[in-house]
Amino acid sequence: MAQYGEKELILSRNPPGSRTSWETDIFRPMLTRVVVLGAGFGGLELTTILSETFGKDIDIVLIDKGEAFVFGFSKLDVMFGRQLPDAVRHPYRDIVKPGVRFLQTTVRTIDPIGKRVVTDEGTFEADVLVVALGADLDPAATPGLVEGGHEFYTVAGAFALRDVLPAFQGGPVIVGVTGKSFKCPPAPSETALLLHDYLTERGRREASEISLVMPFGTPIPPSPDTSQAILEAFAERGIRFVKDSLVKSLDPTRRVAVLSDGAEMPYDLFLGIPVHRVPQVVVDSGLAAHQYDWVPVNKQTLATKFPGVYAVGDVNGVGTPKAGVFAEGSAKIVAAAIVAQITGGAPPDSYKGQGSCYVEFGHNQVGRVDVDFLSGPKPTGTFQAPSAALVAEKAHFGSSRLERWFGNPSR
């Protein structure tokens, strides 16, 4: 880590607002540089904590290829016509925090040994490198999905369905998971329930059949109570739950989905959860062995095998679900570790893998499941039944994070 009194010879390491001539910086301390790859829940929470702690006395470079942040639940809001696309986009340019620079650029290579990152905007060397690039989605990995179905897990895919759904007149609908590991495990169930409401409001529900294909025996395995509540909601609405199965391919000509056991299901509308994979730049770096091998980390600290390099959120293989709340929780642990490293303080408590997920039940009702994945011998979950109060709590969850990360709760 850089020490006081050293010359600063690499101009790109100057923090925002500093002088560019190294000759005037001989007696200025080099600030600790933290490079954060990815501006999702994990990247935004981590940079916010470090900025709040150190202000201008730290040099944080936050890098993301996108121009705006979108909550995962907002994709469903847009998809079902409950929100306009522009209302759920939160531009990264609005981030104004001491010590933080945001760069919209693509990461080309990562050197975890040298803690060096090459992007389209230049090369960045770090004292601490945090990889929070999430999971890439690969619709093409499922034969027929691109040609014969729709995916709603990307922002573009969900927003496009806003214009597709109004034209659907009825018939069999499949909400289908195509890979064993996927973001936000409640989302497929939520989609089926919200689709029921959507079709009911438009007078097309009686002409439609809704099926959900999932690789689990129950919708939310760690919480039997949550799963039971969802299954009861399915039964009340006539939604078929196909358990312990994946959609392996689509045949667009015959309009059938082929499941992992060889069974076929007809469809007129297919809403798919694409295969998730490790970003290729992370695989190429050696942080992950292959595209389906999530980055190994210490489960207590989120540290990788490379000193000074952490993996936060969906990209790691810590054993928690791939969801924003868990990325946020792991970011808090890593931020505390960085603070302790800089200040010489005590290391933080171990990561517990705890988080709360809101579950849309339709009918303007929201439930909540509080889960703990790492504290005990097995994952556990506690269910709070759907209520109007939890609708308000979910809204506050979103607005409070926008205020914290962007300083503007309305955008």
Descriptive notes:
The protein is α/β, with parallel strands linked by helices and 411 residues long. The chain folds into 2 domains: 11-136 and 277-343, FAD/NAD(P)-binding domain, CATH 3.50.50.60; 138-276, FAD/NAD(P)-binding domain. It has 10 helices and 23 strands. The protein has helices at residues 41-54, 72-79, 85-88, 145-148, 155-164, 187-201, 224-237, 280-285, 324-343, 388-406; strands at residues 33-37, 59-64, 68-69, 90-91, 100-104, 107-111, 116-119, 122-125, 128-131, 136-138, 150-151, 171-177, 208-213, 239-242, 247-251, 256-259, 264-266, 269-273, 275-277, 309-311, 354-362, 365-372, 380-387. It has a 5-stranded parallel beta sheet with strand order 5-2-1-9-20, covered by helices on one side. Strands 11-18-12-13-14 form a 5-stranded parallel beta sheet. A hairpin with a 2-residue loop joins strand 7 (116-119) and strand 8. Helix 2 (72-79) runs parallel beside helix 5 (155-164). The chain is globular and about 70 Å long. The chain starts with 32 loop residues before the first strand and ends in a 5-residue tail after the last helix.
Strand order of the largest sheet: 5-2-1-9-20
Number of domains: 2
Shape, per Cα inertia axes? globular
CATH-defined superfamily of the largest domain: FAD/NAD(P)-binding domain
